């Protein structure tokens, strides 16, 4: 791992998703290894599905043991300090949204590298950002949160579209990335703060 | 997309699965993006699992944006006209069965192209036909319908076996395909009409 | 299939997982094809996920029809003789643990062949051993047993680590394999007999 801005944020995203997975698993009263597995799939689920769909195998986490160690350490620390961390719910939420933003960008970028059309790149970014949480909730036997509450995938899709829009208008890729992350995080904060949600359809 | 019979039916199958996914998601009161995602996975789930198992990546829907647009438009139209469409339950069921029949054939064909044994081709066809619904129901947190009601996978397997049987007896592939689709659709209609089901095993 | 020790135990493992899948599906009152599908995914799920993550496609069971036939025959026999087999719960448990041990080794070995680091090989072995059961329980809409009861993944991880430890100290691979299988089976028996479990974390 080279140390540049993207890596720093990716690491933060990985940490955040590992924390969110750990909390979700603890709430279901899983044993420690169950907790670790849930933390792991939450962190690497999105990137794994992305790499499988692209055929870029062995998948990313198998080629870089550092991310596995990072998730392991994060999850264990979360288990020990969970009463303390619970007070920083806002911090957690920010990291989670930051992770969502960056993982979306990582997915979009990878789609571009693989020569996919913009719409497909946005889909790939959304998958990268959201699938960890989907797998986590499916394994924990709840309807994935993404399908029920708060604009989540929508933020990824809007962020991905914004990215291509900014590039189209000639913005440098690095600045566009930061703008997209700020956009996704801000959107998520506004949505949660004002309890915004897309209207649902029912019979 | 060339316009030939197969494409027409495949498009109809895609539309039908998108409609079925939309209805299933609406019943669970998901927000619009949740609905779109469920419609999407229901339509492309089977083909995606098939391509992943074969290692034919990037998976099909990433290479043809038309199917994504088709699903998007279908799902949105279904949301707006759902009260109207509900009256056409029989039409929906027929399209769903037609889609099942065709997707089974598409899977079988792809297995043949990849040089798999007939039994494996039938398995691949069954996966292509059924997996969209399995993923849909798993994400929506219900026991997949396929495992509980109406002969479903059985129709795919029987149809796939019939296809090889017809080819073995020298029938032209195109005629065999149509025969298999008619067979699967008819079997499904009879099963649903007369509430047939395989006997279950219980303690 | 050459007949050597590994194949014999792998066949036994496949049989055991097929039996466990059949029983789980029967308990949920699925129809016979639902039962066969669950038996099938329980037996081949772990190896399939392993091959997908590695990009070793078409996945193993598509290339060897013998395993599919074995699962089919096992599941049908289990359905017919299930009242009889239920009395041999201990035998079943032993075969299940044996399968877990061997599939773990198969996964570890495959990781070594693909040049992965030891930690990744152990992860791959654990995935190979455990994922069949995870998919089975997810499809049947229960929290995967692996996350709730008895040291299961833990046994795979410990066994995988032991394997590398034994190789490091110069043991022949074949002897190390048998030692690891005996270790995993013994660990599982002790855990179940004395109702050992890792402590859980709860609020």
From TrEMBL, chains A, B, C:
The chain crosses the membrane at residues 33-49, 61-81, 93-116, 122-139, 151-169, 175-191. Keywords: Cell membrane, Membrane, Transmembrane, Transmembrane helix. It is found in: Cell membrane. It is a multi-pass membrane protein. Residues 8-82, 94-166 form the Glycine transporter domain. One of its GO terms (cellular component) is plasma membrane. It holds the Pfam family Gly_transporter. The keyword Nucleotide-binding does not apply. Its main location: membrane. Belongs to the UPF0126 family. This is Trimeric intracellular cation channel family protein. The lineage of its organism: Bacteria, Pseudomonadati, Bacteroidota, Sphingobacteriia, Sphingobacteriales.
């Amino acid at each position: 791992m080279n140390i540049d801005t993207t890596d720093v944020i990716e690491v933060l995203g990985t940490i955040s998703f590992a924390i969110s997975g750990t909390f979700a698993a603890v709430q279901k009263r899983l044993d420690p290894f169950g907790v670790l597995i849930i933390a792991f799939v939450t962190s690497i689920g999105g990137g794994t599905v992305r790499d499988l769909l692209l055929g870029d195998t062995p998948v990313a986490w198998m080629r870089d043991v550092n991310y596995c160690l990072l998730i392991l350490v994060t999850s264990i620390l979360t288990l020990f300090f969970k009463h303390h961390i619970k007070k920083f719910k806002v911090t957690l939420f920010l990291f989670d949204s930051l992770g969502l933003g960056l993982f979306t960008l990582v997915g979009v970028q990878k789609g571009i590298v693989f020569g996919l059309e913009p719409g497909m790149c946005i889909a790939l970014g959304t998958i990268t950002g959201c699938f960890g949480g989907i797998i986590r909730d499916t394994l924990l036997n709840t309807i994935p949160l993404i399908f029920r509450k708060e604009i989540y995938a929508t933020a990824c899709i809007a962020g991905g579209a914004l990215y291509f829009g900014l590039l189209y208008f000639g913005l440098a890729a690095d600045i566009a990335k930061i703008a997209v992350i700020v956009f996704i995080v801000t959107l998520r904060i506004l949505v949660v703060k004002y309890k915004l949600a897309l209207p649902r359809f029912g019979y």
